[in-house]
Amino acid sequence: MSVIIFIIILLVLVLVHEFGHFFTAKKFGIRVDEFGFGFPPKLFGLKKGETEYTFNLLPIGGFVKIFGENPNEENINGPNKDRSFVNKPRWQQAVVLFAGVFANFLLAWLLFSFGLMSGVPTSVGNQALGLKLRDINLVVVSVLAKSPAENAGLKIGDKIQLVKSGEDYLAEINPENLKSFVFSHRNKEIQIGYIRGSKPDTTILNIAKITPVITDNKPTMGISMDMIGTAKLPFFPALWEGLRLDWSVTKGTAIGLYRLIEDGIQGKGNLASITGPVGMVGIVGNAYQFGFVYLMSFTALISINLAIINLFPFPALDGGRLLFLLIEKIKGSRLNPKVANTANLIGFALLILLMVVITYHDVVKLL
Questions:
Q1: CB of 190 within 8 A of CB of 221?
Q2: Taken in order 127, 130, 134, 136, is the CA torsion positive or negative?
Q3: 186 or 139, higher pLDDT
Q4: What is the reported pLDDT for 216?
Q5: For residue 199, is pLDDT > 60?
Q6: What span, in angstroms and rounded, lies between the C-alpha atoms of 280 and 275?
Q7: I need a surface site. Which of 33, 267, 305, 349 has the fewest CB within 10 A?
Q8: Domains of the chain (ranges plus CATH)?
Q9: Buried (b) or exposed (e) across 203-220, using 16+ Cβ within 10 A?
Q10: Could you tell me which of 134, 31, 155, 91 has the C-alpha nearest to residue 329?
């Protein structure tokens, strides 16, 4: 299930990104030859006007084929040169290139806003200033494999409502009090009463019977917990807070990427801090267990990451193509098409290689 959800999220994010390029190219009169759903091999296509909308076998994104995006003799000097991307004013080319990134930022804003309208799970203390949380519970945020908690049936997203051992009850349920309770009942069975799900017919108090194991001379059940409530806002305040959250996450992600690159240059880099497609499947699965609204917020985070990475000034990425436009503006003439195309091809190959390496490390971490 996690794999299917991840594929759907990736498909939506990439298609939104490509639609930004598609929409602005059409507005500027640039010919768009193909809008592909998924990646080849091609299954079938429908042609509407001059654009063919293709449906392809690999459902992991999409693409647009813009006439003149990769310069050659035909699109520079051919009969349709006036509708070629490469022959449009540089500001229009820049808008088309940036539109995909903008679409991802816009999607993240809408997802954050919709989440705040619906009620998004938020950790106590991490909510925006002045934003009140309701329905606050102690929630299981991770479960260690083969731990007493997993063996007893606890899962991510379970809301802990009752903690007892024999006749002893935990009066105020929070992470610190629960840890102290477990420590003081280290050799006894502890009963955890929890609610799973949020629908009225699923709010049944389940009981997990757990006997802690001693690890490093400390009793442990094998769970991580956090106090989580629901943040909910009316329509217009949600739009404003969603925009602020979009900007805050964008700024934080950009700073994090900068530090990651800086550490790499200084030889301090570590691939363990980078997650690829395989690792993302597991994270998506965890987000899904918290509910659909939480999954939407997580999708917004991925959308912002995708936008920022695409802005990086590296060949084959939108940021690299924008850099080429800036160089052309400074030098006052067009770059040699062969040089630009070769640079983009090499950049694409390096990106694929990097993805393979990251995926390998994701698989190794699972073994």
A1: yes
A2: positive
A3: 139
A4: 82
A5: no
A6: 6
A7: 267
A8: 2-119+237-366 (no CATH), 133-231 (2.30.42.10)
A9: eeeeebebbbeeeeeebb
A10: 91
